[in-house]
């Protein structure tokens, strides 16, 4: 049985924002991690996404401004150098502050090890991540954007290796 995910959104972001939707091959899906979507948004005041039942894990990093995440019946405020990691099967809602517009780098990933990785992260007890000021997460996401803009025979192996080598576990400052 295939579950269809539910989504409502207002894609209010600037023209220079980047959203890459990746269609991974079966081979990529059967390896470790793979990119499903990756991007960088400078949001507008009406930006939001509400979703559930999507087989994906989402990492968001706040570059500037303010955003809000509602996940598992709790609402969190996100400021620069904060972000989250969530299981998109769970109902969630995130949005930009209407006045202090949210700039984010983000990554939807999945793979054979995705669920086990998320379960390990979940033991922390919160989806919120406090990144260090020198965090490399934005640069790493930018590199994944560059890799996935190429779309050649190297894209999937490079993305998978990159996600494994720079696993999100060390990227997240505990």
Write the layout of secondary structure elements.
Blueprint: E1 6-10, E2 18-21, H1 26-29, E3 34-42, E4 48-52, E5 57-64, E6 67-71, E7 74-78, E8 82-87, E9 92-96, E10 103-110, H2 114-122, E11 128-130, H3 137-150, H4 155-165, H5 168-171
Antiparallel strand pairs: 1-4, 2-3, 3-10, 4-9, 5-8, 5-10, 6-7, 6-9, 8-11
Helix pairs in contact: 3-4
Overall 3D shape: globular
CATH class: Mainly Beta
CATH architecture: Sandwich
Average residue-wise pLDDT: 90
Structure, explained:
Helix content is 24%, strand content 36%. It has 174 residues and is α+β, with helices and mostly antiparallel strands. It has one domain: Sandwich (Jelly Rolls). The protein has a 6-stranded antiparallel β-sheet with strand order 2-3-10-5-8-11, covered by helices on one side.
Core attributes:
24% helix; Jelly Rolls; 5-stranded antiparallel β-sheet; single chain; 6-stranded antiparallel β-sheet
Please summarize what this structure is.
With 174 residues, the protein is α+β, with helices and mostly antiparallel strands. The protein has helices spanning 26-29, 114-122, 137-150, 155-165, 168-171; strands at 6-10, 18-21, 34-42, 48-52, 57-64, 67-71, 74-78, 82-87, 92-96, 103-110, 128-130.
